[in-house]
Amino acid sequence: AQDNKSVDKRLLLICELLEKHIPYYNWVGFYFKNGDRDELKLGPYVGAPTDHTIIPFGKGICGQVAVSNQNFVVPDVKSQDNYIACSITVKAEIVVPIFIDGENIGQIDIDSNTINPFTEEDERFLEYVCKKVGKIIPVDTYIY
Ligand code: SME
């Protein structure tokens, strides 16, 4: 099986490309289900380091996506009660789940310093990215 290191390298490259080329993508990272625990663990990311390397299912925008299996677009983070702030510069967030064989195994999480920047085009594009990501994660090692 492919080792997690080379997968992580590719995931980091995706983060770098997205952050570099899309001006309103200011923090880009992946969270994955942490073994058999009901929590997410931070994977490769670019942007300001975050204290939130582990997020319990249900908590924050990320934790809610872990249980809803749906995209979550937040135009204005101030309007969310169940939100985990990583940086005071963040105004908006989008989280799109990653599926392998129909199972929600993780997500891409993007923070923006711009208010209400995300459109349906971002959702469709990130769904496409997540579909590709689901294919490069080896089934036996996708659980981090
Ligand atoms: N804001 C997220 C936490 C992760 S940071 O954005 C990197 C949330 O509410 O789940």
UniProtKB/TrEMBL annotation:
Pfam families recorded: GAF_2
Domain GAF positions: 6-135
SUPFAM superfamilies, per database record: GAF domain-like
InterPro entries from the UniProt entry: GAF (IPR003018), GAF-like_dom_sf (IPR029016), Phosphatase_reg/MetRdx (IPR051330)
Family classification: Belongs to the free Met sulfoxide reductase family.
PANTHER family in alphabetical order: FREE METHIONINE-R-SULFOXIDE REDUCTASE, GAF/PUTATIVE CYTOSKELETAL PROTEIN
Protein name: GAF domain-containing protein
